[in-house]
C-alpha cells in the first residue's frame, strides 16, 4: 500500500511532467529488466536488453547492490545531458548519505567511493555508463516514448478538465482512492506512507515499468511519482505485425478490429460506433476478449471502459499507439 498525504497546498501544486525524462525512463527500464518485472510477456524484451548492454554500462549495477538505487539519481532532465548535470549538481552530503544507505555496512567499490569524493574519473564513469545504456535501451524507441507521453499527458489534462483532480489521480491507478487528502494506492510495494507537507507532487508516466508506482521522495523537493502507463508492453522500434489474415481466421475479422481499436480506451458505445455494430454486439466482443485475457473492463458509475491488455497487444501484433 502506498499512502500519500496531501495538504491543500500540495493539491494546488500537483503537476504532470510535460515531457518524458530520459534518465527516469532508463532507470525504470533497467529495473524491469534486472528484477524480471512484467512476467513472461516481457521475456523477449528483457533478453534483448540484457544481451545487448555493452560492458561500459556495467558500473550501473554497482549503484543498486540490493535493488535500491540512491535517490540522487532521480532527476527530471529533458535530455540525458541535462539529467546528468542535475545529478552532478547534487550536494556531496546527499551523495554520501545515499550511497551509505544503499550499501549499508558492505564496502563500496572504489569508483563508487570516488563519487562522494568528487573524483572526476568516477563521475565520468557514471556518465559513460548511463549514456551507453540509454543508446542501447531507449534511443531506438525514444520517439515512441515521446508520442506515448503526449497521449498520456492529454488524457490526464482532459480528465482534470472534465472530472477534476481526484478523478484524474485515481484514474492513474484503478482501485486507488483519494479521501480527505490521502491517496491510497493498494497493492504497491514496498508499503510506504509519505507526507508531502506543501512540497507538491510531479506525475511522470513510464512505459517500461509495469509493476507499480515508483515514488521518489527527497527532502525539500517535490515528490515525483513515476507510474506505469501505456499499452502494457515496452515500446518497440518495429515489432513485426502478426499476419492479418491468420489472426482474423482465429478471432474473426470484427473481433480482431475490436482488439486493435482497444489500443485506446473505448466505452461500449464508442467501440460499437467504430465497428459499425450494435452496442450489444460490441459488448459481446469485449466480453469475449476479456474472458481470453486480451482486454480489461473498468466500470465508472454507469459507464464501462474497455482497453486491451499486454497479451492483447502482443496478439494484435500492432505497434503501440502514437497518440
Automatic annotation (TrEMBL):
GO terms for molecular function: DNA binding; DNA-binding transcription factor activity. Keywords: DNA-binding, Transcription, Transcription regulation. The keyword Transport does not apply. SUPFAM superfamilies: Winged helix' DNA-binding domain (SSF46785). The keyword Zinc-finger does not apply. It comes from the Bacteria. Residues 245-320 form the HTH arsR-type domain. This is Winged helix-turn-helix transcriptional regulator. It comes from Streptomyces qinzhouensis. The lineage of its organism: Bacteria, Bacillati, Actinomycetota, Actinomycetes, Kitasatosporales.
